[in-house]
Amino acid sequence: MKNIVGIGLLILMLVSTWHFLLNDVDGRLIFYSSLILTIFLVIIGFNIFLENRDPIQTITWLVIFCAFPFIGFIFYFLFGRNFRKDRIFRKKYFLDKHTFVKISGEAGYNERIMEMGEHPQQLITLANRLGNSPVSFTTETRVLRNGEETFSNIIEELKKARHHIHLEYYIVRDDRIGGLLKDILIQKVKEGVKVRFLYDAVGSWKLARSYIDELKNAGAEMVAFGPLHLPLLNNKFNFRNHRKIIVIDGSVGFIGGLNIGDEYLGQDQKFGSWRDTHLIIKGEAVRTLQLIFLQDWYYSTNNSFLSDEYLMTGMPNHHGYGGVQLIGGGPDSEWTIIKSIFFKMITSAEKSVWIASPYFVPDDNILQALKVAALSGLDVRLLVPKNPDKRIVFHASRTYFPELLASGVRIFQYNEGFMHSKIIIVDDQMASIGTTNIDMRSFHLNFEVNAFLYRTESAQQLVNDYMEDIKVSKEVEIDEFSKRNFGLKLLESTCRLLSPLL
After folding, report:
1. Does the active-site annotation cover 308?
2. Closest C-alpha among 194, 203, 293, 294 to residue 245
3. 97 belongs to the catalytic site
4. pLDDT of 256
5. Which of 164, 182, 344, 422 is catalytic?
6. Which pTM value belongs to this model?
7. Is 357 helix (H, G, I), strand (E, B) or coil?
8. 8-state DSSP, 415
9. Could you tell me which of 290, 265, 262 has the C-alpha nearest to residue 198?
10. Is 422 a catalytic residue?
11. In the annotation, is 98 catalytic?
């Protein structure tokens, strides 16, 4: 009913405006068009009020509607309609939860969990309860610190595939690396390997139709997540699949920050060198990654493949890898899963909290947790890019610097190209690596996936890599930062106003 009313009002407003441009002389249609727009915005504002959103977000929307009515109207339809997300994804949430509990069973390895200590125990328990994913102590992981390492390993493993290849990506480019992966997938299909490729309809909107057709004609299944027909009126536009997943034969997986495109290899002139972090996973935890993909595939196609041929994994006998948990979060979740785990990581830290995020627009909970940790004497560090790729987010993030610096947080700006890693490291022993940024979109709107590592060699590698990144970064000094000119501060504050919506 709400969609019908919205469509009717939108058509009426556009028709009235067009008629005015052609025929109006005395300005009466300006009045009626303005009246229709005003009524429509009042209806939207009332809906937002009844949704009981965060008060700051509600006030931000109302201010935008008052100051910029027409722009606010368009912006709301593109990015603001959260009121239907429970209904849109409720079925997916309960189906995913039932499947994860049924397939994964209860979290095991109680003795190993007890050996991890109180802090990791609490995080493991929280992650399991929120994400329905048990911890694995028989999973091997290895950190891949740039595009060259990541894609060379992906290509190597793809060529070994014998049964199936599952891919799920936010951005797919039809460029050199995208073409190379396409050719490998087509070859694997010819060898009898089942290839399923899920790409986000918005993130990959520039992907050539010929790219998709070539894969489909070869026998691969390629499906858009959240396809759009009328973007302004599509209630799924704002909820995107930001995950980057590859699962090969159920035994090897990849997750992390890199999409498929030449810029992630540092071949884009705008960004130059591209600093990113990915993870290769082998063993038991790949099953969780497989489940995440299969449930997203089922949501998009209504085809289920929850069988032993996809859920049996090669499990190494060695038990010295440390703990690994794969957690998926999204707007279908009952809880803000990954944000809640991040919050627990920060508030329970005993020595240090190190964060790397290309887009840093925290909500009040994460912001307060970071400030309290720093004020408590912990070593709290934030690594961000020096140069922007998304200017509104970049300028909004800088408005958080003064209060963080004042509380004792050390902020570093990465100088060697663009930094796109999404990392949290706590006490040099526990870490998160995946697709989730420290921003509102990742916490509340996007489908994300992260690996949580407990006392693994990969966690230690992330510590070493972070220290190397700090060496090529410039620390932000509060005195120097406060000398920014008035125009820049005004721009940042304006972008900050939009931060609850980003």
Report:
1. no
2. 293
3. no
4. 97
5. 422
6. 0.82
7. coil
8. -
9. 290
10. yes
11. no
Strands (DSSP E) found in 303-461 = 323-329, 352-356, 360-361, 379-385, 410-414, 418-419, 423-426, 430-434, 438-439, 448-454
Q: Lowest mean pLDDT: which of 262-276, 375-389, 414-428?
A: 262-276
What is the C-alpha separation between 183 and 166, in angstroms, rounded? 15
Considering the candidates 296, 363, 427, 465, report the single residue annotated as catalytic: 427
Alpha carbon 41 to chain centroid distance? 30
Longest dimension (CA), the chain: 83
d(CA 312, CA 326): 16
Do 383 and 419 meet the contact criterion of CB atoms below 8 Å apart? yes
Above 60 in pLDDT, residue 440? yes
Rounded CA-CA distance 355/346 in Å is 10
Tens digit of pLDDT for each residue in 166-219?
999 999 999 999 999 999 999 999 999 999 999 999 999 999 999 999 999 999
How many distinct helices (H) and strands (E) make up the chain? 20, 18
CA-CA distance, 246 to 467, in Å (whole number)? 28
What does the alpha-carbon distance between residue 230 and residue 314 come to, in Å, rounded to a whole number? 44
Q: Alpha-carbon distance 483 to 481, whole Å?
A: 5
Q: For residues 259 and 63, what is the distance between their CA atoms, to the nearest angstrom?
A: 36
Structural tokens at position 330: 């999204």
Amino acid at 274: W
What span, in angstroms and rounded, lies between the C-alpha atoms of 193 and 250? 13
CB atoms within 10 A of CB 25: 7
332 is catalytic: no
Please indicate whether residue 427 is annotated as part of the active site: yes
Q: Which of 332, 420, 439, 444 is catalytic?
A: 420
Q: Which of 244, 282, 339, 344 is catalytic?
A: 244
